[in-house]
Amino acid sequence: MTRIAVVVGSTRPGRRSMQVAEWVLKRAREHGGAEFGILDVADFDLPLLDEPLPPSLGNYQRDHTKRWAAAVAGFDGFIFVTAEYNHSVPGALKNALDYIYAEWNNKAAAFVSYGSAGGVRAVENLRLIAAELQMADVRAQVALPIASDFRDYTTFTPSDAAEQALQPLFEQLISWSTALQTLRK
């Protein structure tokens, strides 16, 4: 069965990304069509990239890198849940993406973002990064404005539009994740 990870991209204290990721995971499991799990960047304690060789060589030296690579390798596609920090991606998520290479190749990516402008600028950056990592990003995305989808800017309360936007995201991601499996065999 196709396996898809919901990647929690912020490690910041008080982060909103876990609330969003849990919502995405619950809706994904209700949708079905794949096996879904969570990959929380915070669980891996990755320091700033400290591998002596470029990740594209696949010769990982550090135990934390090997653990991260093994976790990512087990999935066929990813839903990146990301905040927008200063018009871009949280540093912890960018660092986690940079750590490894082949484990991302020929897999599909979708994006659920949040921030003052719904996190769309972070997703613009993530699409460029995904392309360099040879990931196929799907068109559908969910953008969550912090002023309307978070009560008092803290408690996640998804709008009906956000709920509806998840369905095409799941459909596209499952299709692409399944199709790309043939390239990795």
UniProtKB/TrEMBL annotation:
GO terms for cellular component: cytosol. GO terms for molecular function: FMN binding; oxidoreductase activity. SUPFAM superfamilies: Flavoproteins (SSF52218). Residues 2-147 form the NADPH-dependent FMN reductase-like domain. PANTHER family: CHROMATE REDUCTASE, NAD(P)H-DEPENDENT FMN REDUCTASE LOT6. This is NADPH-dependent FMN reductase. It comes from Pseudarthrobacter phenanthrenivorans (Arthrobacter phenanthrenivorans).
